[in-house]
Amino acid sequence: MGSAAHDGGCTCGDCPHGARTGHRRAVAEFLLKREEFAAGQGLPAAVAHSASASRQWVSDELTQSAAVVAERGRVEGEAWLGRLWLRTAIVVWAAVVTLLLVQALTAIGAGWTVARTAGLIAALLVAAALTGAGYLHRARGGALAPVIGEDNRLSTSRAIAASWVLFVVFCVLVLVGRLAAASDHRERDALIAGFELARGAGIVTVLAVVCGIAVLVRRVVGLRVLGQRLQKVRAHRPRAADLLTDDAGRGSFTDIQYVTLCAVALVFAAVRLARRPDQLPDLPWGLALLVLVSAATYVAGKYAEGGRPVILSVVRAREAGDLDAPIRNGDDIEIRGAGFVPPGAQTADRLSRMVVRIGPVHVHVPLVPVAGGFSNPTDAVLTVPVPADVEPGKVDVQVVTAAGVETNRYAIEVSAD
Question: Mind telling me which residue stretches traverse the membrane in this protein (predicted)?
C-alpha cells in the first residue's frame, strides 16, 4: 500500500498514522447510532412491534458498534504509546537545556563554578540513560514504561518513587563529579563527608519509604483483585490525569495529597542541593515526616478503596398498567445492589460484557440507550428478562461484572403459572 493511502483518513488496524482518525470516526458513528436508538429511530419493522425484541436488537447493534470502538481505541492507544517515547525524550532534553540556561543566568556576576559543571554533566548522564532506556521500551511508552501499571494507567506510587530515585541519582552524580574534579585533599574529604548518613538521613528515609510503598501497593492491589475485593479494568491508554484520579477519572484525595506533598519536598531538596552542592540535600525531619504521613494516607486509601459488588434485592419489574404478579418466565426482573459497574467500565463495550446468571442460564444484560448514555445497566440497578429455559421454582441470581467479579447469590422464586 502506498504512503498516500495512509494520509488523513486511514482507518486500517496496523497504521499508526490513521489510528486516531479511525478511533474518532468509530466513536462518532457509535454516538450517532446510540442517539438515534434513544430517540426511537432506526428500528426495523420486524422487531418494532415487540418491546423485548426491539430492546434486544438495539442492544446487539450497540454491542457490535461498541466492539468496533474498543478495537479502534486499542489500536489508537498502542500507536500513541509508540509515539510517546520520542515526546518523553524531547521533554528530558528540554529539561537539560533549561538547567543550562538557569545555570548560565545565575552565573552572571558569580562566575562559572565546578559545581555548575558537575550538575550539567550529571544532567547529561541522566538524560542519556533515560533516552536509551526509553528507546529500548519505545513500544511501551519510552521512559514512562516503568511507571505504567498493569491496568495501562500511570501508577502514582511508581511515579513518585521514580522521581525520588532520579533525583537521588542526580545528587550522587553531582557529588561524584565534584569529587573527580577536586585537587585538594581537604576538599575531597569534605565531599566524602557529604555522603554521611547524618546529613542525608531525611532524604534516604523518604527514598526508602516511597520505594517500599511502590512495591507494597502493587502487591496489595494484586491480592485484592485476585481475592475479588477490588475490581480493575484495563484503560485504553495511560493519561497524565491518572496520577491524580481514580480509575473512574474522579479526583482522588489520597493521590492528590501524596503527589502534592512529595512534589513540594522534591522542590525543597532541589533548592538545598543548589545551595549546598557539596553534600546530599539535608531534608529536614519535619518535612520528611510530612511525606511519611502522606505516604501512610495513600496506602490506607489503597486498602480502603473498592469492594465486592453485592445484590441487595431482586424484584419483578413492573411497567405502568401491569398487574402485580409473581416472577414468571419472560418477565423482567430488577436487580438492586451496588458495585455492578467497576470504575472505568462506563463505556458501552465494557457494559455489554455484564452477565446475570439465573439458575443455570447466563443472560447478557441488555444495553438500553437514552440521550447521552444508558439507563441500563447502572451501578446500582440492572434489568434483565427471565429466559424461558429457567425452570420454575427457587433459583439463584448472580451478577458477573465487566471485571469478572461475581456477586453474592440471591434466591428468587419463579412461578410456573
Answer: 90-112, 118-138, 159-181, 201-221
